[in-house]
Amino acid sequence: MPSTRSPQPSLATKKQPAQQRATETYERILEVTAQTLADVGIERLSTNLVCERAGLTPPALYRYFPNKYALLSELGQRLMQAQNARVDRWITLEVFNGGVESLELAIEGLIIDTYEATVQTVGGVWIMRALRAVPALQQVRLASHATVTQEQTRLLAQALPEADAAELQLVSRIVVELIYATVEMIFDEPLDVKAVARTVAGMIASHLTRVRPQDSGQPPHTPAKPGGTRPKPGAA
Length: 236
Hints:
Mean pLDDT is 88; it is low at 215-230. With 236 residues, this protein is an all-alpha fold. Helix 1 (20-40) packs across helix 2 and helix 4 (68-90) packs across helix 7. The chain starts with 19 loop residues before the first helix and ends in a 25-residue tail after the last helix. The protein contains eleven helices and no strands.
């Protein structure tokens, strides 16, 4: 029986701007798309509406983006990059070396910082929702999460060299998804951001003692130099 699934829309940009004027047009399209998304939501977003608001003809937009999904894909990748940049600020070998309390504070700060990064992005919450709700954009989110998972698995392996590698991979992947889902939940419900971040951070950090090998009563190991400072939640 033939498949009834619709073909996957192209998410790739047709070309990258090579000159300043073209770059300005490219960025203008994305800026207007983000603002339009914030104003009307995912379903009502269209390339025609973006062109109308940007003062461009459809051919000018289609020179770079074949459809609205390509627009959302580019915005999604930029949002994920902004969110992921916060991970390196908070999750370090020094944090793992500080034990459960240190990790709890860092994860709390990361959740709050990721939330703020989304707030500061025009249309950020709608871009995040699009990455979850639109099947065509799923791979943008999954690819980003895979990159963060790989880096966090590497850090955990250095901090807990005797731990099972497969378990570290699984824990890292789940934590990445939990933090992302937590930020989504904060936008979806009128919850206290700090209270939610603190609760989730405590749940995640407490699992550190289960990941550590049972015969090891020592805190996670790190080759980093002593004297590192522990980040405070809410710090930039």
